[in-house]
Amino acid sequence: MIGIAMYTTILTLHKQGTSQRGISRLTKTHRKTVREIIRKYEERGIEIPSKYERSSEVGNWDEEVIKLLSSDLSTVRIFEELRKDGFKCSYGSLSRYIRMHNVKKNTCIRFHSKPGEEGQVDFGDIGRRYDSNGKLRKAYVFNMRLSYSRMDYYEIVFDQKIETWINCHINAFRFFGGVPKVIKLDNLKSGIIDSNYYEPIFQKEYKRLSDHYGCLLSPCRPYKPQEKGKVESGIKYVKNNFFAGRSFEDNDSMKKQLESWIESANERIHGTTKSRPSELFQKEELSSLIELPLIKFDMSSWHIRKVSKDCHITLENNYYSVPSKYVSEKVIISLEVHLVKIYKEDELIATHPRSKGKGAFTTNDNHYDKYKKLCPGNPDHDKSCEEKMMKIGSNCASMLLYIRQEHKLDWYRAVKGIIKLRKIYDDKDIDKACLRGLHYGISSYSKIKKILENNCQNLPLDQSILAGGSYANVA
User: Number of structural domains, the chain?
Assistant: First the structure.
């Protein structure tokens, strides 16, 4: 198709009296094209080429396509649905039509809120900053923006734990002097356990916070960040207008400068409302917020953990025991100032003092099955060995004392070996073998066994050794 500039040039040369052959040679355009342009001009006075527009068969289905797109259907599914209604175009034509119009990306709905109705919250990554100990760490800025007045609260934090998330909310409510009726949030793990849009599961402690302050938690639909576009803009604003291009000596300096900046930011003329957020807040929004409760929110954090095979859960790099029947199941932990409470559903199943260090084990032996507790070092295990040796005979009881004296930490190996001999020999012979072992200062299981195998337990003892033997010392 010939361009407008060339079209005009051809007509200009024609008006100047240049022949069609000459125009063709000068413009390097075919003579048939030159002749057709001149003909249109002379017959119909056309001086500008008309754009050729081919009618689109898909365009006749525009309303149906947009309706199906609004239902979040893929192009394949839209094609299938349209074919049911008599759509004759190819899949490629439909796909090109959707891409050309770009309906999904270029259309959105603007959300409006009444005074005090909604506050939007989110975290924003602000890179590495100095914490209160002077250490460079990954940092985030928390923003709560009131949707009506655009009044902002910002706070710098160094993690996205549930405790931090809740404390930021509490501080924001105090800053505003009230609570918005609805908190709009993204599906981040600090607030949402399961991002099911129809029945979202909130972090228990976060839900307790909303109940305490009387506000509703309203998560956005997954992959729909535009539903909390105001706080997205708030995060972008603080990153570009406060953090960008600034350096801070330490954490205190950064926080003080942020506080001062927040005050000035809330005094600016907002680009959308054309009003100062602070003035709009004071005049129209503050009185519409929910009043702060008189009772302070009880700050204890909740976590979900899976019980490991050793009957412990891990929290803050420490370990706490849980009854063995809950192994491999998920439990809920309430982390309070001095206590760790562990729940299964709504039932309290364990309570421990909160460990302050790292790598510490807090174990309640009663959380293990009884048979699992019968291991060396456990009082029940030691008592069981003592009772079994005494049951064999008094010499075996003395042998137990002697073995514990000689073998110290691994005494139980020889004792369990002697007890196991009961499967082959009767108690009287084992007791005599222990007497012989004591007489000659033997504390080895293998040698006691050898005495029995060689039937030496009934042989007479050398009385000259008895006077100074080990048995006398033990007895």
Answer: 5
Read off the pLDDT of residues 243-296 as tens digits, 9 standing for 90 and up.
988 889 899 999 999 999 999 999 999 988 899 999 999 999 999 999 998 878
Phi/psi of residue 249, nearest 5 degrees: -65, -45
Pick the closest to residue 319 from 329, 305, 337, 299 (CA basis).
305
**C-alpha closest to that of 317 among 367, 366, 365, 362:** 362
8 Å CB contact between 365 and 378:
yes
Which carries the bigger pLDDT value, residue 300 or residue 260?
Answer: 260
Do 136 and 283 share a structural domain? yes
pLDDT score of 377: 65
Domain co-membership, 95 together with 175: no
Q: Could you give the maximum distance between any two Cα atoms of the chain, in Å?
A: 150
Give the CA-trace dihedral at 238, 240, 242, 243, to 10 degrees.
100
Full 3-state SS string of 50-78: CCCCCCCCHHHHHHHHHHHHCCCCCHHHH
Write the CA distances from 213 to 145, 289, 296, 462, integer angstroms. Answer: 17, 11, 10, 88
Do residues 367 and 391 both lie within one domain?
no
140, 157 contact by CB (below 8 A): yes
Residues 350 and 383 in one domain: no
Q: What is the mean pLDDT of residues 291-320?
A: 86
CA-to-CA dists, residue 383 to 377, 387, 396, 448, angstroms? 10, 6, 14, 22
Q: Are residues 259 and 319 in the same domain?
A: no
| Angle between helices 31-44 and 20-27 in degrees, nearest 10 | 120
> Domain end: 260, 288, 316, which one?
288
**What pLDDT is attached to residue 191?**
52
With a threshold of 0.70, does the pTM exceed it? no
Question: Which residues form the domain of 204?
Answer: 118-288
Check residue 300 and give its pLDDT.
Answer: 65
Do residues 234 and 130 share a domain?
A: yes
Q: Are residues 385 and 314 in the same domain?
A: no
Does the residue 49 lie in any domain?
Answer: no
What does the pLDDT read at residue 260?
A: 94
State yes or no: pLDDT of 4 exceeds 60.
yes
> Do 92 and 137 sit in the same domain of this protein?
no
